[in-house]
Design a protein that fits this description.
Blueprint lengths: L5 E4 L5 H6 L4 E7 L9 H10 L4 E4 L13 H14 L3 E5 L2 E4 L2 E7 L5 H18 L4 E3 L14 H12 L2 E5 H11 L3 H6 L6 E6 L3 E5 L2 E5 L8 H14 L4 E3 L8 H18 L10
Helix pairs in contact: 4-5, 8-9
Pfam family, one: MbnB_TglH_ChrH
Protein name: UPF0276 protein GHC57_14420
Family: Belongs to the UPF0276 family.
């Protein structure tokens, strides 16, 4: 995976255009749960694309932060996806999404306590053993604070990295969303992370809603990356150096020309921020 490179989520509507004229896009990411069943169009599309460019596998249903044990069947299916696709990167969320056998179809927050850290560290270690490789753990978007938290989230993630040897997927949009919702400084958050552990960066758009007179930002991946997130990304790169960067777009999917142009903008921002000469990208 080239460090100074931009990727996008692999979507059926874009696969042919991506292969014909990738432009600034150098790699793709898939959600593991979308290819856990054998065969079918999704697998054929994936095989066609991964022959030409690197791949990142992003899990959304493992529930690393859940109080229950990991689902062994889900973990086995994830391991099978990783073995079959041989991705450059594998990632999951600092979140939980089920309990008591019920799957809640959401990424729910984890309290930053020592007890939760023990649970997440155990689950990360179990996952890494099953996959035979380190994973990246993504920082969540936050909408509320827990009473009784014993550390802030950067300290929680730093401790997780130290205990398990995992890396971090730094979602800059999630930092921005959380900072606006919770009232903290986003660069202070980022500077509190072990930045040498960052193996991938995510960028995305978000929605803004007003509820009972309070403005709330919602991480929905439904629009172009806003200027405020791009500015935070540029500041982050000055501290991390080049990192593979994904543009997430999971709703309101734009035409390929629009997404490719956005990837070119991020690629130019990356090279300019790192003091490099931007490469000319085809349209």
């Amino acid at each position: 995976m080239p460090p100074a490179s931009v990727g996008v989520g692999l979507k059926p509507d874009h696969a042919d255009a991506l292969l014909a004229a990738p432009g600034a896009v150098r790699w793709v990411e898939i959600h593991a749960e979308n290819v856990m069943r054998a065969g079918g169009p999704a697998h054929r599309m994936l095989e066609a694309v991964r022959r030409d460019m690197p791949l990142s596998v992003h899990g959304v249903g493992l529930s690393l932060g859940g109080a229950d044990d990991l689902d062994p069947d889900h973990l086995a299916r994830l391991a099978a996806v990783v073995a079959r696709t041989e991705p450059a990167l594998v990632s999951e969320h600092l979140a939980w999404c089920g309990t008591g056998g019920a799957f809640l179809n959401d990424l729910l927050p984890v309290p930053c306590t020592r007890e939760a850290l023990d649970i997440v560290a155990r689950h990360v270690a179990q996952t890494q053993e099953a996959l035979g490789r380190p994973i990246l753990v993504e920082n969540p978007s936050r909408y509320l604070a827990f009473k009784g938290e014993e550390m802030d989230e950067p300290a929680f993630l730093a401790a997780l990295v130290a205990r398990t040897g995992c890396g971090l997927l730094l979602d800059v949009n999630n930092v921005h969303v959380s900072a606006c919702n919770m009232g903290f400084d986003p660069m202070t958050y980022i500077e509190g992370l072990p930045l040498d552990a960052v193996g991938e960066i995510h960028l995305a758009g978000h929605a803004v809603r007003t509820v009972d007179g309070v403005e709330i930002r919602i991480d929905d991946h439904g629009s172009a990356v806003p200027d405020a997130v791009l500015a935070l990304y540029a500041e982050t790169l000055r501290r991390t150096g080049a990192r593979p960067t994904l543009i997430e777009r999971d709703s309101n999917i734009p035409p390929w020309a629009e997404l490719s142009a956005e990837a070119a903008r991020v690629a130019a921002l990356m090279t300019e921020g790192l003091g490099e000469t931007p490469a000319r990208a085809s349209a």
